[in-house]
Amino acid sequence: MTLIDTHDLSKSFGTHKAVSSVSFSVATSSIVGLLGSNGAGKSTTMRILAGCLRPDRGRAIVAGCDVVKDRIEAQRALGYLPEAANGFSSLTVAEFLSFAAEARGLHAGSGRRAVARVTETLELGAASGRQLGTLSKGWRQRAWLAQALVHEPPVLLLDEPTDGLDPKQKVDLRALLKRLARDRAILMSTHIVEEAEELCDRLVVMNAGRVVADAAKGELSDAAGRLAPALIALISDRSQTASAAA
């Protein structure tokens, strides 16, 4: 079942085309990696899907809901971890997660149970009484991931989810995402090739705002299972073409 579907998405900021004619889909029970170098358009695409940006052209569908025409319903079906997540620095982790639960319609007992569940899942108990603004980057990242999971959405949009995590936390998160993907559609942006090799079923590669490849991981991997050679070639070819056109 397709839970994320984009058609001809485009978004410009002034004269800069951040995303140009982007189309891809993500089905349930899968992790799709959105790959590319910094500035490729990954985060802009994520923000459009999350309903934070309005596309100039095209459509984005989340769980059957158009993110422009039916934004609230689309947002109810997704959990979003933004790039470089920050904010709510004066709230404790427990207060932040309680706020996130209430914002998702989970009140009283259901909200407390949801907060307890994600606190245990992401091992946040030691930090639950601390303010977000006092936490290390890794702890803060885990708290923001918890808010994306608190309402158990069928769709997850994770923008650089392992950013700031230590090696053990990365291993634990990979295991968690594999479990979550059994009955969810996960779109995960990353510029870390090893993350894509470990986690993703399919890869959507972006460069200069465009999709330059959309294929199963095995189709892009070399004989040793490495993705880096193909990704470097895709990005280099595209960059050279763009330079020639300019």
Architecture overview:
The protein has two domains: 2-77 and 153-245, P-loop containing nucleotide triphosphate hydrolases (Rossmann fold), CATH 3.40.50; 87-151, no CATH class. Helix 3 (93-103) packs parallel to helix 5 and helix 4 packs across helix 5 (137-149). The protein is α/β, with parallel strands linked by helices and 246 residues long. Strands 6-7-8-3-9-10 form a six-stranded mixed β-sheet, sandwiched between helices. It has helices at residues 42-49, 71-76, 93-103, 108-121, 137-149, 167-180, 193-199, 217-220, 228-245; strands spanning 2-13, 16-27, 30-35, 57-62, 65-66, 78-81, 155-159, 185-190, 202-207, 210-216. It has nine helices and ten strands.
What is the 3D form? globular
User: Approximately how much helix is present in the residues?
Assistant: 25-40%
Order of helices and strands: EEEHEEHEHHHEHEHEEHH
Specify the CATH class of the largest domain. Alpha Beta
- Overall tally of structural domains: 2
Rg calc: 18 Å
List the uncertain runs: 240-246
The name of the CATH superfamily of the largest domain reads P-loop containing nucleotide triphosphate hydrolases
Total E-strand runs: 10
In what range is the share of β-strand residues? 25-35%
CATH architecture heading of the largest domain? 3-Layer(aba) Sandwich
Average residue-wise pLDDT: 91
Structural class computed from helices and strand pairing:
alpha/beta
N-to-C CA distance:
41 Å
Note the total helix count. 9
Which fold does the CATH topology of the largest domain refer to?
Rossmann fold
Strand arrangement, largest sheet? 6-7-8-3-9-10
The biggest sheet amounts to: 6 strands, mixed
